[in-house]
Amino acid sequence: MKRIYNSLLLLGLIFIGFGCTDDFEEMNTPKDSVTEVEPRFFFSDMVQGVFANYQRNVNLYPDFYAQYWASTGSWAVSDRYEYKDDWIGNQWKEHYTQFNLESNTVDAQFGDKPAYNDQIAIKNIWMVYWWSRMTDTYGDIPYFGVSNAETNAYDSQEAIYDDLFLKLDEAIKSIKNDETQALYGAYDLVYDGDAAKWIRFGNSLRLRLAMRISNIAPAKAQAEAQAAIAGGVMTSNDDIAHVPMWSNGWYDYLHQMAWYWDNIRVAKTFTNYLYGQSSVGEDPRAPRWLSYKVDGKPLTKEEAGKASYEGLENGLDASMPSSSAEVTGKATIRLENGFVEFSGDGDKNAMFCPVMYYSEVLFLQAEAALRGWTSGNANALYKQAVEASMDFVGVDAVDGDAYVAGLNDLTGSNEAQLKQIITQKWIANFPNGIESWADFRRTDYPDLTLPYDGVSGNASVAADTYVKRVRYPDNQHNLNEVSMPSALNTIETDRMDIKIWWDVENTKAKSGGLMNSNF
To answer: What residues contact 254, with CB distance under 8 A and at least 6 apart?
Structure first.
């Protein structure tokens, strides 16, 4: 695997820009010079973006909002819903000036070359993933025909979603997967150039986005979900989409945050759900995922003298130092001989960053069946999803089977059954905070907690209210307020407790632990 830095991007753009006259280009371009940068180099960089700036773009925001992690010390401001432009603001800049620019460059250089059809289609599937992350973070954003400039027009999230479905449909159907096509090979860090797996991922992503709009546009959601399943979604854990980080590389992923920078612990909300969900007691995934950190060394709960894995409260005041007994006595991730995402594959890959698990796809199908959109059995798919998670996490088959056998079947109202599905989906999706925060906003499940020390007085989120979106970065307010949605085009009105398009209900409407809006 290779890391291709922005110099290649700039090189490609320079040669695109040398178009003043044909004579000028011919006179100033050596005959043996490189005039195009192949898509594989751009694509490798675009895929590795899931790691880049992970702490500021993901861990300090969606990961906390999904309550997989809790913050220690001075990082706790974002855990209490404060916005920091020099943290999460990087996501906007990187998307528009790097990933989108790379995507446009590939289209400009290779869009009319038949041999690169599959590479461009796969790149487009990946860009749908990036665009969905962006619009699900902010709501309305610049999308149609955007450049890397700061002053693009904004488009509605509804229109963006409509186009994302079209792009997925077109990309999936256009993949030839034959000998005429150039291959990404090892530069495809997700599937090693396997076009068939990209088709299954594309359909699975379509299913995810279909369920995202289930409350706001149910007829559209049903049609897209049915098309995705008919097209062929993931079929096993061999199809999961995650990005490896090799042993000689470095990114600010969870290793650094949990162990070396010491600025997070596993959230108490999450560890609480690892007990009592099944009649067997402790979730057998817990010791695969978690450990205790004592004198810089990882210990099991038994070695640490603990009866269980205990997490840290979300939203502690920033004055709580990471060296305090309250923090040091809480669980963190297990680095060695545990979950493959954290401990690596024992070979060249030191860790993996999740994009989509097979278990998520089964949970999505269970929800589709519950809604009557497919002929599948919701309860059977729900149990299969938990089993798939157990298998992927590396749980002993006997222990995994016992946990699944000890789960209650889906019972009660549709809302009650959906809560069971989303709760187990949230557990299985660990540590994919981006997806789980979206699920919580969409369904208001599972039961999460508000910040322990309250929503920060510096946050644009009302007291006793959950965060619903991230506000637009400062550069947009400084340079492009004229293009922004009129209700959000000042710092004061660009609040983080305003629901995005597909988030149709307020968590405060819960009665008896259930919503009344998901069906």
So the answer is: 54, 59, 264, 333, 342, 351, 431
pLDDT at 163 over 60: yes
Question: Which CATH number do you get for residue 126?
Answer: 1.25.40.390
Q: Are 176 and 117 in contact (CB under 8 A)?
A: yes
Domain assignment present for 276: no
Can you read off the two tokens belonging to residue 517?
């809006």
Residue-averaged pLDDT of the chain: 91
pLDDT in tens, 462-482: 999 999 999 999 999 999 999
Predicted confidence at residue 307, as pLDDT, reads: 96
Among 71, 382, 362, CA closest to 234: 362
| Residue 300 domain flag | no
User: Is the overall model pTM greater than 0.70, yes or no?
Assistant: yes
How would residue 323 be classed by pLDDT, with cut points 50, 70 and 90? low
- CA dist., res. 80 & res. 83, Å (int): 9
Name residue, tokens 């994302």: 164
CB 352 within 8 A of CB 245: yes
Classify 81 in phi/psi space as left (phi over 0), alpha (psi -120 to 50) or beta. Answer: left
Q: Is residue 24 part of a domain?
A: no
Instruction: State the total domains in the chain.
Output: 1
Distance CA 519, CA 372 (A): 11
Q: Does the pLDDT at position 15 exceed 60?
A: no
- For 356, the domain range is 38-261+336-509
Q: Comparing 321 with 246, which gets the higher pLDDT?
A: 246
Instruction: Give the C-alpha separation, 165 to 177, whole Å.
Output: 21
| Domain membership flag for residue 232 | yes
| Percent of the chain with pLDDT strictly greater than 90 | 81
Contact call for residues 463 and 454 (beta carbons, < 8 A): yes
